[in-house]
Design goal:
Strand content: 35-45%
Helix content: 25-40%
Number of helices: 4
Number of strands: 9
């Protein structure tokens, strides 16, 4: 996969960086999306096969939302060939008036199990609570996504409930678990 050498990076430890998802990373991000499309469709209904044009358009929207302060769209990168190899994405959809946000993420299959999403999510939560002054961050995931459930628990999220039949897939509706962490809970050890 192609690497990127963008100017703005957010180091989050062990050489891992977060990079704004803007058209500056279009080629590398499109390659990552295309390589993971089939695998991600299991978790995201209705996603279409990405083209370079649709990827660039989505990145333009992400960049505008970042500038508007309504979203923090990031790619996860690891060191490679005088730049960074993109291995995943992290998104924080911000509702400033409510003092809250919803986080979403995904990772390339080859990068699973390396702690990259945990590191990225911890950094984004710190930014949300400390720098943005948010009160609450929510995470929604299919009830069948065990990796995301374990991640939520590790980072101190509380399972608040299940939205029954909330997402429609071609083979039927699926349930969604809703997790949240409040500013005063972040960074404290998870309760058993």
């Amino acid at each position: 996969m192609p690497t990127t050498t963008t100017r703005f990076i957010w180091p989050i430890g062990d050489g891992t960086v977060l990079i704004p998802r803007t058209p500056a990373i279009a080629t590398a991000y499109h390659a990552l999306l295309a390589a993971n499309h089939v695998r991600l469709a299991v978790w995201s209904p209705g996603s279409e096969e990405p083209t370079p044009e649709t990827t660039r358009t989505a990145l333009e929207r992400s960049g505008r939302a970042w500038l508007d302060g309504t979203r923090l769209p990031l790619a996860i990168g690891v060191p490679a060939d005088n730049g960074h190899l993109l291995v995943g994405a992290m998104n924080l959809a911000i509702d400033s008036s409510a003092g809250s946000a919803e986080v979403g993420f995904w990772i390339d299959a080859a990068a699973e199990g390396q702690g990259l999403v945990t590191r990225a999510l911890h950094a984004v939560l710190g930014h949300a609570f400390d720098d943005l002054g948010l009160h609450r961050v929510e995470m929604r995931t299919l009830t069948t996504n065990d990796r995301s459930h374990r991640l939520a628990q590790r980072l101190g999220f509380t399972l608040e409930g299940v939205l029954r039949g909330a997402v429609q897939f071609p083979d039927g509706h699926r349930d969604v678990a809703v997790y949240a962490v409040l500013a005063d809970e972040f960074g404290k050890p998870a309760q058993p």
